[in-house]
Amino acid sequence: MAGKNSGDEALLPPLPQITEETQPFWDSAREGLLKLQRCSDCLEFRFPPSVACPACSSMNYSWEPVSGRGSIFSFVTFQRLYHKAFASLLPYVVAVIELSEGPRMVSRLVGLEEKDLLTCGAPVKLRYERLSDDLVLPLFELSGERE
């Protein structure tokens, strides 16, 4: 029913706002690829997507696949519930991932076990979580391999 809030809707996590600028990122995630914008002039990768390169201000870019590997730059473990949709995940870790290609992304770390000792610099690799036919989230897990 329009305008009514069913119990199921309350359990949906906050979803990304997909815009014309970010559509290619989400399209590639749905295909199982991590593609980022790369400046055609200075060749720097960038994230989040933007019209102009933050390094050189060029407006020329292409979408290119990246490795999906990187390391933990920073992280926080959430022990407290801030959204009902994440109740079953507590505690969960959100990290700033520094990709091998340079840009940093904020993501949830998945596949962790109690014995896992998280440290900045720990290597991670990409893993996808399909929320629907149209939305796939790029998440990260520990890779066990030092870069």
The percentage of residues in β strands lies in 25-35%
Distance between the termini: 51 Å
Number of helices: 2
State the CATH topology of the largest domain: OB fold (Dihydrolipoamide Acetyltransferase, E2P)
Quick one: biggest sheet?
5 strands, antiparallel
CATH class of the largest domain: Mainly Beta
- In the sheet with the most strands, the strands line up as 6-5-4-7-8
Helix/strand order: HHEEEEEEEE
Query: SS-based structural class?
Result: mainly beta
Rounded Rg: 17 Å
- Fraction of residues in helices? under 10%
Number of domains: 2
Poorly predicted runs:
1-6
Number of strands: 8
**What number is the mean pLDDT?**
90
Which term fits the overall shape? globular
What's the CATH architecture of the largest domain?
Answer: Beta Barrel
Question: How does this model look, in words?
Answer:
With 147 residues, the protein is mostly beta strands. The protein folds into 2 domains: 20-66, no CATH class; 67-147, OB fold (Dihydrolipoamide Acetyltransferase, E2P) (Beta Barrel), CATH 2.40.50. The protein has 2 helices and 8 strands; from the N terminus they run H-H-E-E-E-E-E-E-E-E. The longest helix has 8 residues, at 23-30.
